């Protein structure tokens, strides 16, 4: 492995220069990770001396993500470590552990690979994952507002393939949003990775339930009506709605339902209909052929909604004049 002496990112042995800072990379054996008083984990080696922390990648409500060197495997990994106060909550820790179990049971090229679940020396818990280089869809939308059709179709087609694996096993993600869709840049285009299975609903026989009936789980802007109501009868079609909300935002530059508070957003989702994409996204050239596809994806009743994310992806591609199915457009 090599590292950049400016930003301390880790790279494979065959890399030459840091794409962020332009610095010539040096072998990790000739460098040391930085130390910072703001976070004692940076520069430390955790989990029985296996993971050497090199830098902070991101912060979230549950925890902080680091890039680390797996000293045993000789590879770069991401460590998501719970915040101290979250690590004291038994239900949060159980959800975190279930994220590991569910993700590890869903090996798929479009689902982030989870490698381990560890207890840290500072009394927290770590989820060990493959390290991804790229950006979240949220970052792209903040910068570019919308996605061009070819990029949108490729993304939703890959989402359909990854979610089909989960849905076949009766696992509902329940928190699909631009923040949980990671776009890995490759020479051939985006490679989608679905993140964060910590809010899943496992409908398989005998699965343990962690959500009390009437509790809403998910992000309000992307939540289906049945999620908004906290209904017990919730299946993969809730994810269809969420992906439709993401597609809507990708073509219009705005979410389909908007209000000033979370509860008001949920009321809007349950009681009103979004504008047709061709109207909401007129400034970006959203086609009228997309309107009936989104109308079916946003049906309030799951029984009337598009049956799968694959059918939604098919509809999006055909709205842009493509022949075939999402399996043809994913790569």
Structure description:
This protein is α+β, with helices and mostly antiparallel strands and 331 residues long. It has 2 domains: 48-130, 2-Layer Sandwich (Phosphorylase Kinase, domain 1), CATH 3.30.200.20; 134-329, Transferase(Phosphotransferase), domain 1 (Orthogonal Bundle). 31% of the residues lie in helices and 19% in strands. The chain has helices spanning 84-87, 90-104, 137-144, 149-168, 225-228, 237-252, 262-271, 277-280, 291-297, 309-319, 326-329; strands spanning 2-3, 10-11, 26-27, 45-46, 51-59, 63-70, 75-82, 114-119, 125-130, 134-136, 171-172, 181-186, 189-194, 201-202. The protein has a 6-stranded antiparallel β-sheet with strand order 4-5-6-7-9-8. The protein has a 3-stranded antiparallel β-sheet with strand order 2-1-3, with no helix packed on it. A hairpin with a 5-residue loop joins strand 8 and strand 9 (125-130). Helix 4 packs antiparallel against helix 6 and helix 4 runs antiparallel to helix 10. The mean pLDDT is 93.
What key attributes describe this structure?
331 residues; alpha+beta; Phosphorylase Kinase, domain 1; Transferase(Phosphotransferase), domain 1; 2 domains; 6-stranded antiparallel β-sheet; 3-stranded antiparallel β-sheet; 11 helices; 14 strands; globular; transferase; nucleotide-binding; Kinase-like_dom_sf; ATP binding; Prot_kinase_dom
């Amino acid at each position: 492995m090599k590292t950049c002496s400016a930003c301390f990112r880790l790279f494979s042995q065959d890399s030459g220069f840091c794409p962020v800072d332009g610095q010539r990379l040096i072998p990790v054996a000739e460098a040391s990770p930085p130390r910072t008083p703001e976070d004692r984990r940076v520069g430390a080696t955790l989990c029985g001396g296996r993971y050497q922390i090199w830098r902070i990648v991101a912060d979230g409500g549950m925890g902080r993500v680091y890039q680390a060197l797996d000293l045993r495997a000789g590879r770069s990994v991401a460590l998501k470590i719970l915040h101290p106060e979250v690590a004291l909550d038994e239900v949060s820790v159980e959800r975190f552990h279930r994220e590991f179990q569910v993700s590890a049971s869903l090996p798929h090229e479009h689902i982030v690979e989870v490698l381990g679940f560890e207890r840290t020396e500072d009394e927290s818990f770590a989820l060990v994952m493959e390290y991804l280089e790229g950006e979240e869809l949220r970052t792209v939308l903040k910068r570019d507002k919308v996605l061009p059709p070819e990029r949108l179709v490729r993304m939703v087609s890959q989402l359909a393939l990854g979610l089909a694996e989960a849905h076949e096993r009766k696992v509902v993600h329940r928190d699909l949003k631009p923040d949980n869709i990671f776009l890995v840049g490759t020479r051939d285009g985006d490679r989608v990775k679905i993140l964060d299975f910590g809010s899943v609903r496992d409908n398989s026989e005998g699965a343990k339930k962690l959500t009390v009936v009437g509790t809403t789980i998910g992000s309000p802007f992307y939540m289906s009506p049945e999620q908004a109501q906290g209904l017990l009868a919730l299946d993969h079609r809730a994810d269809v709605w969420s992906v439709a909300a993401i597609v809507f935002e990708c073509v219009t530059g705005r979410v389909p339902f908007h209000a000033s508070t979370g509860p008001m957003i949920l009321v809007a989702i349950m009681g009103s209909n979004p504008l047709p994409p061709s109207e909401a996204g007129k400034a970006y050239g959203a086609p009228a052929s997309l309107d009936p596809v989104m109308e079916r994806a946003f049906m309030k009743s799951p029984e009337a909604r598009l049956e799968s994310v694959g059918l939604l992806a098919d509809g999006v591609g055909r709205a842009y004049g493509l022949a075939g199915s999402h399996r043809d457009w994913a790569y």
